[in-house]
Amino acid sequence: MNLPTALCIAGPTAAGKTALAIDIAARLPVEIISVDSAMVYRGLDIGTAKPSQDVQATVPHHLIDIREPQQSYSAGAFRRDALALIENIHAAGRLPLLVGGTLLYFRALLQGLAPLPDADPQLRAALDARAEVEGWPALHDELAKVDPQAAARIASTDRQRIQRALEVYAIAGRPISELQAENPPAPGIHFLRFALVSTSREALYARIAERFDQMLETGLVHEVQQLRKLPGIHADLPAMRAVGYRQLWAHLEGACTLAEARTRAITATRRYAKRQLTWLRSDPGFRQLEPGGGAPAEEVMRQLTLAGALDALSRSSG
After folding, report:
1. What CATH topology corresponds to 121-180?
2. What is the rounded radius of gyration, in angstroms, for the C-alpha atoms of the chain?
3. What pLDDT, in 10s, does the model give residues 43-74?
4. How far apart are alpha carbons 179 and 8 in whole angstroms?
5. What is the CATH number of domain 5-113+183-317?
6. Does an H or E element contain 279, and which?
7. CA diameter of the chain
8. CB burial class (10 A; 0-12, 13-18, 19+) of residue 53?
9. Rounded distance between C-alpha atoms, residue 297 and residue 208, angstroms
């Protein structure tokens, strides 16, 4: 029995994922599931390159604007929501199209997530207090002693992930990397996966800079100003730590000029894109596509045909 198909399009930021998704949507009855940890937040529009309202009205989109900026959203929540949406989209005779660059979410969906202990506010407050005195790099050194595997993939300045790894170890008495390795089996879905990976890193970096400048021109600073007025908002929230937003927050706090914030944001985005590319190139399950033109969409259609997904889609919609 053939498994139902879900189409995945991943790639680094500014690679052209949305354009490819819209190209495919013009050819097939799809519904798009966003795989983006920042697009889930209302009010984060310009800096996340969120699809316009016109685009969202043309093609059904899911998991966009589902949380307030003061709230949190996890990989586990994404997996639960995405699996339910995939089932509903299949039931409607349409093709689920998962598009985005949050690779942790893709990994959670494809490989599952081991159950981890809930957050402990008191423990987190204690870790924050220690970090105020010792610094997060010192806590990262502590993490390296109890969970070298996790420390190797977490930056020494990544407050949120260092805190979570130490919290899990303190509660469970086991490394988070060990717990995460105990994944449940993947769901009964055939994930046909593609990654937009440019052979020219310089071209990607140029697009990153150009896109951020366009965001500034279309009002990103004002967007961050409006977000800062919301009750309960602060710089350490996951939404405000998104690339671009945290640099402009620092500018609005007077910590740097706008020009410095721009440079820092572009540099951070380039580093993020580099990590995304490394992850995608190490996963043979993603077929790599060169961005640009109509060739990526043609290859996706060809692979869908070979997988029998188009025939199945025709039968279910007929």
Report:
1. Histone, subunit A (1.10.20)
2. 20
3. 999 999 999 999 999 999 999 999 999 999 98
4. 26
5. 3.40.50.300
6. helix 258-281
7. 65
8. exposed
9. 22
